[in-house]
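Researcher: I'm comparing several assemblies side by side, and this is the next one on my list. It has 937 residues spread over two chains. Same procedure as the others: predict the full complex and return the structure.
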Amino acid sequence: MLDTIGVSDMRELFADIPASFHHEPGSLNLPDALSEAAIVRKFTQASDSNRHAGNSSYFLGGGTYHHFIPAVVDYIISRGEFLTAYTPYQPEIAQGTLQVLFEFQTMVARLLGMDISNASMYDAATSVAEAALMARRAKRRERVVMAGSVNPRYRAVTHNYLSHLGGETIVVENNGFSTDVEKVCAAVDEATACIIIQYPDFYGSVYDLAEIRRKCDATGALMVVAFSDATAFALIKSPGECGADIVVGSGQALGIPMGFGGPHLGLFTCTQKLLRQMPGRVCGMTADVNGRRGFVLTLSTREQHIRREKATSNICSNQGLMCTAAATHMSLMGDAGLKTVAEHSAAALQMLVSNLPAHVKAADGARYNETVLSFKDRNHRDDFLARAGAEQIFAGIPLEKLDGKAEPRHLLVATTEMTEAEDVSRYLELLETAQ
Amino acid sequence: MTVSSYSGGHYSGTSGLMHEEPLLFEHVHEEATSISLPGLTGPLSDELHAFVRTESANIPGLSEPETVRHFVRLSQWNHGIETGFYPLGSCTMKYNPRVNEQLVRLPGLAHIHPDQPEESVQGLLALLFELQNWLGEITGLPYVTLQPAAGAHGEWAGLMMIRAALESRGEAHRNKVLIPDSAHGTNPASAALCGMQTVELKSLANGRIDLEELKAHLDGDVAALMLTNPNTTGMFESDIAKICELVHQAGGFVYGDGANLNALVGIARPGDMGIDCLHINVHKTFSTPHGGGGPGGGPVVVNESLAPYLPTPRIIRQGDLYRIIQSDESSIGPVLGSIGQVGVLLRAAAYIAAFGKDHLHRIAEDAVLNANYILARLKEAYHVPFEGICKHECLLTDGIQNKHGIKTLDIAKRLIDLGFHPMTVYFPLVVHGAMLIEPTESESRETIDAFCDAMLEIAIACEEGDTEALYVAPLLPIRSRLDETAAARNPVLVWPSESKDE
């Protein structure tokens, strides 16, 4: 091959890199190569040393949920034709990816009660941030209002995205563990591009969005609704049904492993009216030269490879394969399965909160699968956590870990269809003895 | 139908049987799910009853066998690296090692919650911490964030760090980012996302950065130069040291777009050349699968001038323990809702572990060898806009074929009928009719020769005026050329939800 190229030595192919930058092979401070078997051993040892859902029970939420993943989901996303394909820029040989994306977009839009969905964003936090940017563009207003009951990580990332773009970003301080709708509405005015709320909120509260919708109608602000566990909407009214203009959140609950935080899946949906301002890739239906139905990425003039600095976003790679996972999951479940998942998730929480000992309080108000449990003081809580931990139960997230303003005596607790009756019973028993 | 053979290979447009497959919504739906679900049944709270939805979402459910058949059939319509050559310039479509798929599915790596106690995930944190060190060593930029979810995300995070550094120097007024006209669209888009003004630098006739043009634009308002090296035409910017020196002298930072790192891995390091901040595309250089568009991973590596501003959360080591710091004073804060695309990062770690210090350089060597070989075989038949040795990708144009009425698009579509995924077309934008070919190091000579034979066959067909096959291509895949104009004019992005019985 060197002959064909017309050089005598591999070095000549790197002569354009100044010699002073060349490193001798083997000179970097990296370990020796490992055989495949050795790599498997190394990673297996790492895995075995961790506590995981195979050997522990999980009452953790806060944006990531331990739901059941049917074997078929992992099988489909392991198929090389899905796994090793690129972004479908040559649509004739990517109709598999493209039809899956179209099905994904459709099912996500239906679940959230919205007109359209894009083909994914990185995660919930960045989706919320991009929703704020989109609202500012669409309304030509710069003021963004966020409820304090939105997941703090979503808020922190959103602040970051907005930080150099002018305008003010207000957080409506929250008291207690549900959304103060009146206070939120009071903060929305005619200079507001959008109000961002979470439903169910970060503390798990399910509440009426009608007032917020009315305030948005009165002021022209867009109603952006964020969410964490998509399965909620198989049971409770979708944000779309409640009048949201933009609905964004996490699709991790739809067949995607917890994975210590990634790769997850950002869902991004909006009303038809707002289509042209939506960021991210989107798949559309069309026909080929023979009149046969097919699918292509479309409306690319919103995107960075065409519009460059005027694009709706800089996003290029999205979460691709995780859309395939979610689409497979949803089609295995269907309405009936998703509803069962949601009912079981909610029933587990209800069993827990309706049997609490007197000294532990659950937050008030309607909840789906997440709530806040409050203890007398930090010692009581931490003692309970330690004893639960000793039995391989991850009993909740200390609230102050995520919500810096919280007193250190609360736990953010979530349940799913993976929470069995015995898990709840044992949890309650351990709570009993935490006097 | 079997189409013409070349180099003795045969291929056809069908595999077993290539089925038409309707949409999920066009199938008959099951009333009940076929999945047996765990969990407990019980009453809902009275308060929740008020919020229960009255109409179902209309998500179609198929039985398990039907779901499998649906998605398996769809998968058969796709070309993937596992099916064939995928020479997309700038994408680095190298083989994705299957062992990595096994590793990330180990339960202690997959089924762990980001907020479970640190002590319970030390094994994972150790692997990620090690990866940080390796990426730092490979790039010569020792301070690392694993958080950004993709290259573009890394670009934005890197520019945010640069802004933070400038602010702490009292130079917040610096808001210009210089970007070569050959840059990928994400570069100016990321700069705009930071509220910075982009200034385009015209490249030289040979595709490289013009030092005079650069000097002319370097003033007290410049925050950074964003550059890709090798650049997007596949050429190494040999003046890189001088370029970085000029930018630093003017008080700016040099941001490196790491998309083309495959040409340098194990041989040369961006940090040594003067780059201050670089994002890495792990889905390119470090073999993590492209998944039909993602998930990617865009770790950012920096030198000490930017280290204080790295995003949090971040993994550190305290004695024998790995900890996650959730925040620190000078950090730009979180760029993602979690610590990063952990499953993707683990694949990158396994990949690097397999090469180790003695073999890593072979990635760049073989990638550059393969690209130069393709260039050598095709440079008579195709127009080569820039002279000289290329790096991991080579750039051709349709200049010669234009004379016969053939465009890059036609060549690309004809390649499909000859059994290959086309190269990247019409990028970089500054070269008319661009065809950017990146074979990667994981292709055999046999495959590369077959590709070159096919390209030569196309060139000869153009010469001889035998172009009908190019205009009608592609004929063999499940669909022929699709009407992208109609798709954009009348966007249909969801299947209409008429009735439950579809």
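Model: For your comparison table: Confidence is low (pLDDT under 50) at residues 1-10 of chain B.
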